[in-house]
Amino acid sequence: WVPFERYLFNSLFVSVTGTLTYIIIASMAAFPLSKLKFRYAGIFYQIVVLAILFRPEVTRIPQYIIIARLGLIDTYWSIIFPVLAGSFGVFLMRQFMIMSIPDDILEAAQIDGVNPYRIFFSIVMPMVKPAWLTLTIFTFQGLWNTTGAQYIYNESVKMLPTVLQQIASGGIPRAGAGAAVALILMIPPITVFIISQSSVMETMSTS
After folding, report:
1. Which residues lie below 8 Å from residue 116, measured CB to CB, with a gap of 6+?
2. Phi/psi at 71 (nearest 5 deg)?
3. Contacts of 143 (CB under 8 A, 6+ apart)
4. Is 6 helix (H, G, I), strand (E, B) or coil?
5. Which of 25, 68, 159, 172 is the most core-located residue (most Cβ within 10 A)?
6. What phi and psi values does residue 130 have, to the nearest 5 degrees?
């Protein structure tokens, strides 16, 4: 027997941790691709674009093999790690950085002796706020709605959407409980979207 709060905690932890980590990784990967000149930069960018073409159905078996061999079955990281490997966020952030960050600002900061990490967190990230807010919506919704059924078998680690499926399988007698869980599932994505909605259109039109 697992309390309902445990399922809610599992989904919140995976969604929040995965979203924040992915935003940082995608932004740090997009910054050199957009503003730094180095060898094979074009090839790396083409790999990022080509990776977007691969549907989850294509990578599901290789992902499971990797997760299993890393010993991550029945852990939160079995859901978070595959998301961190996604390339859509890198593509989105790169396109927005190219359009929104003038090279003169970065050159002025380098002349003033600002180290690259401070340039990234103090200058770049604030200037691309609409982009990472948009990425927050996409990533959070994807993680919040995932069941993780292919990696999670331990009842105490299961996600909230899995519980909704289990309740719905009970038929009409459990319709009330299923509707309550569905309402809870709707609240966080809607809240995140309301907070970030002004940034979505700006990001998409720019990128």
Report:
1. none
2. 75, 30
3. 14, 15, 18, 19, 79, 80, 83
4. helix
5. 159
6. -60, -35
Contacts of 103 (CB under 8 A, 6+ apart): 35
Which has more confidence, 53 or 178?
53
Please tell me the distance from the alpha carbon of residue 127 to that of residue 114, in angstroms, as a whole number: 17
How large is the average pLDDT for residues 51-70? 89
Q: DSSP character for 207?
A: -
Residues comprising the chain, all counted:
207
Under a CB-based contact definition with an 8 Å cutoff, are residues 185 and 160 in contact? yes
With 60 as the cut, is the pLDDT of residue 156 above it? Answer: yes
Q: Which residues contact 174 (CB under 8 A, 6 or more apart)?
A: 167, 168
DSSP 151: T
Helices 77-84 + 4-35 axis angle, to 10 = 20
Distance CA 14, CA 142 (A): 11
